[in-house]
Amino acid sequence: MDVSQWAIDLKLAPADRNRLEALVRSGNTPQKLVPRARIALLSDGMRLNGAIAREVGVALPTVHRWQNRFQEQGVVGLLRDKTRPSRIPPLAPEVIERVVEMTLQYPPGEATHWSSRTMAVASGVSGTSVRRIWRAHGLQPHRVRTFKLSRDPKFVEKVQDAVGLYMDPPQHALVLSVDEKLQIQALERTQPGLPLAKNQPATHTHDYTRHGTTTLFAALNVLGGTVLAQCAARHRHQEFIRFLNAVEAAVPVGKVVHVILDNYATHKHPKVRAWLEKHPRWVFHFTPTSASWLNAVEGFFAELTRKRLRRGSFRGIADLQAAIHRFIAEHNTTAKRFVWTADPDHIITSINRAKRALGADQ
């Protein structure tokens, strides 16, 4: 008889047998491990390898492989596969360096950025290799971020002023971050969307009916995180003053009100300045030009857009405004204090470094 038909008597230790039997019984064991464990269990004693192969449902060489692996490494050897060298030789360092250097330059022709296909053609390596090199070096040519550097001559002073109010608010005072979210559209989808399902994202139609726009005036209370808001048809100084009157009526009497806001013309209108003279407890603190990211209420506007407006379908302006006010009321029930974490000196250093990189340090 062919000696290859005979099993190797593994003479399992009780602990090994218990562990292998647990692997076979468990419903969480990866399916590729179960035949290996059964081969080892059936090899505890003189049994024909052919019989073991038929019972487990594998080929005879497979029985030999896992018997030998168990003899060499024990149960641990059954739980992992041997690593195999890649059939594809690694790229030479100079090839990788060339791909990285090319990626940091503009592509030839009229294209604005590299794709993995165009880089593969230009560099002579596969698209998979290009993507692997980009991933290893943190390169993402397909992405772009928008920015604008502030040229405000009082940039440093205004940053320190606004961030100082966030990080160390004055006692017996309120700090409000105020702004408008303009031209919020009441869009009604032409058909109902499909709900979220397994392997299927939620949907909505690409087309819609416009029902007009509204403007949201909002004041974020930095100390409590709550939002005072008012919707209006337009965003002139008249609507802004009406909003200021509403906030004035809502905040506690006797407290100084520090307001952080941007340089929008409405905020500096002569009639707004006249309103401030009549309300001396109000103090405006303007952010630097082109630095709306310093205004804390912008974070709330982003949350409103992301969670309520972007996927919403509204039958009209009243429906849109009602949805906005419901969202704000819900937000206020769980509001938390706004926490500013960026150091103002670090902000100023980063802006100056960006200006030097762009040759815009003036």
Automatic annotation (TrEMBL):
Gene3D superfamilies the record matches: Ribonuclease H-like superfamily/Ribonuclease H
UniProt keyword terms in alphabetical order: Plasmid
One of the entry's Gene Ontology molecular-function terms is: nucleic acid binding
User: Can the keyword Electron transport be found in this entry's annotation?
Assistant: no
User: Does the keyword section mention Transcription?
Assistant: no
Domain (Tc1-like transposase DDE) spans: 195-320
> Membrane-spanning regions, if any?
none
Protein name according to UniProt = IS630 family transposase
What organism is listed for this UniProt entry?
A: Azospirillum brasilense
